[in-house]
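Q: Okay, next protein. This is KEOPS complex subunit Pcc1 from Methanocorpusculum vombati. I've checked the sequence twice, so it should be correct. Can you predict the 3D structure?
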Amino acid sequence: MHVTGTIVSVHAHPEHVVSALSPDSDGFMTVEVIDGRVTAKVAGESLRTVIATVDDYLMNLSVSERLC
């Protein structure tokens, strides 16, 4: 099975958020600024892997938002 998804979020400083999150994009996810929004595209071969990746991403997103 191949699982994909996209998470789009709005931030005051999206480029800083992407810079903070980029080191965590370990092949399962790409994170970039598109139209002034942080866009994360996730893909994996199992639902469990994608859920774990999204969970980690959301935690790191929360931290980077507070720091930025």
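A: Here is a summary of the prediction. The two ends are 37 Å apart (CA to CA). The mean pLDDT is 90.
Q: Noted. On to the next one.
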